[in-house]
Amino acid sequence: MAFLGFRRFPTPIIKPMWPFMISGPIILYLLHKIEKAGQSVPPFDTDPRNPRGMYRI
């Protein structure tokens, strides 16, 4: 039994997607660093809506 026709028509799935698989985690890491840096700037440091600000004394 051919799974979705892969045995009859060998279609490359991983080969054209490798740039997205490499850049995805890099972009997520950089967005995390930007968000973390934005939460610690002085105007938003003591804002009660800041999720990191509620644990500071």
Automatic annotation (TrEMBL):
This protein's GO CC annotations: proton-transporting ATP synthase complex
Record InterPro entries: ATP_synth_F0_jsu
A family per Pfam: ATP-synt_J
Domain of life: Eukaryota
GO molecular function (one): proton-transporting ATP synthase activity, rotational mechanism
Protein's name in the database: ATPase, F0 complex, subunit J
Organism lineage: Eukaryota, Fungi, Fungi incertae sedis, Mucoromycota, Glomeromycotina
